[in-house]
Design brief:
Number of strands of chain A: 0
Number of helices of chain B: 4
Number of helices of chain A: 12
Shape of chain A: globular
Largest sheet of chain B: 2 strands, antiparallel
Distance between the termini of chain A: 56 Å
Largest sheet of chain A: none
Order of helices and strands of chain B: HHEEHH
Strand order of the largest sheet of chain B: 1-2
Number of strands of chain B: 2
Strand content of chain A: under 5%
Helix content of chain A: over 70%
Shape of chain B: elongated
Number of domains of chain A: 2
Strand content of chain B: under 5%
Radius of gyration of chain B: 20 Å
Radius of gyration of chain A: 21 Å
Oligomer: heterodimer
Helix content of chain B: over 70%
Largest interface: A-B, 91 and 70 residues
């Protein structure tokens, strides 16, 4: 039992530094949601139901821009597709767990929780006895690393709900002239710049950006959905082309 | 959009998001993620962010409208530069907001 609680608490502790990055976005989401006219209870419930920062900011941003439910739903769901990669990445380590455990960890599988938990899994594999070439994981009966994962996920969940609540609480007192919601596109700009190092990302961004303007006249902001799709295809095409050139 | 519609929207988005997260550890626990899908996933974030940024800065209603005197446009450009140079998300937001406030103050003071 001791090593279960130790793993859980270590997970909580290791996740703490990431809260400096997470809390401002929770506050921003809360404030922007209230400014967009969302009821406080619904804004808070959104943080529990969706539990994905970028996606929640997209919902708020598109609501403000007057988009309809279909394009908002499509865009804010598509943006979370990356979680499929995280799911695939942790799968070998959590496959053996019971269904309730896997459901719980899946709910908590966010960017920040993944980033910390996967390091714990990979590190313990590297620290295996030097006699084996292949990294070995502890036998399932002694493997309590999912408690560490739970600690990471729980900590992030707690601070996300708390910071959303504080943002929602103060949202109404912040005058719209302060343009706090402009921090949402600024966040997207910062995240996009970080992604630019990835091969093919520049092509994706240019095509998606231009297409968003070219299809701006489509009703209900559906142009955004078209733009994202075209950007995706452009990125895949560009990365295939570079791979083909590298092979020659 | 009414509260009920928005609640349904959040439930749908939350449900889909949960399915992504559960897919490879639950639904398809003993299968590999197809290569093409993994590749597609990598481009979702840049495509979405670029489309949203372009739309926020240059689209009003259904019209493309480039307003060179808009403080938000210049604030976004400077923020983009900071993001590119530092890779720091909070510094990018802070710079963007400061430039926006400064430009709006200058405009309201009629210095131009």
């Amino acid at each position: 039992m001791a090593s279960r609680s130790r793993e859980f608490l270590t997970g909580c502790r290791d996740e703490l530094p990431l809260q400096f990055g997470c809390i401002p976005f929770g506050l921003l989401y809360g404030i922007a949601a209230i400014n967009a006219g969302i009821s406080p209870w619904l804004a808070q419930l959104g943080s529990a139901i969706v539990f994905a920062g970028a996606s929640q900011l997209v919902i708020v941003q598109m609501l403000t821009a007057g988009a309809a439910a279909l394009p908002i739903g499509t865009t804010s769901s598509v943006i979370n597709l990356r979680h499929l990669l995280y799911s695939a990445s942790v799968a070998p380590y959590v496959r053996h767990l019971s269904r309730p455990w896997r459901l719980l960890l899946a709910y908590l599988l966010t960017d920040e929780a993944y980033a910390v938990a996967i390091l714990r899994y990979q590190k313990s594999a590297v620290n295996a006895p030097a006699s084996t070439d292949e990294p070995t994981d502890p036998p399932p009966s002694q493997d309590f690393r999912h408690w560490y994962f739970l600690g990471c996920g729980f900590t992030l969940w707690f601070f996300w709900q708390l910071s959303s609540a504080i943002g929602i609480f103060f949202g109404a007192t912040i005058p719209p002239e302060w343009d706090i919601d402009f921090a949402v596109p600024l966040t997207f700009i910062a995240l996009l710049a970080l992604l630019m190092r990835q091969q093919g990302a520049a092509t994706t961004a240019v095509v998606a950006g231009l297409a968003a303007l070219a299809f701006a006249s489509l009703p209900y902001k559906l142009g955004l959905v078209v733009a994202i799709m075209l950007g995706l295809f452009a990125g895949v095409w560009a990365s295939k082309k570079t791979q083909a050139t590298n092979r020659e | 959009m009414s509260d009920t519609e928005l609640l349904v929207l959040m439930l749908v988005v939350g449900g889909i998001t949960f399915l992504y997260r559960y897919a490879m550890i639950g639904l398809f626990a003993h299968r590999e993620l197809p290569h093409w899908l993994a590749r597609l996933c990598q481009f979702v974030a840049p495509a979405s962010f670029a489309a949203l940024i372009a739309s926020t800065l240059f689209v009003t209603g259904h019209d493309v409208h480039v307003d060179m005197s808009s403080p938000k446009l210049w604030a976004a450009c400077v923020a983009g530069l900071v993001a590119w140079k530092t890779g720091n998300v909070l510094a990018t937001i802070a710079t963007g907001m400061v430039i926006l406030y400064a430009l709006k103050w200058l405009l309201s003071a009629n210095l131009f």
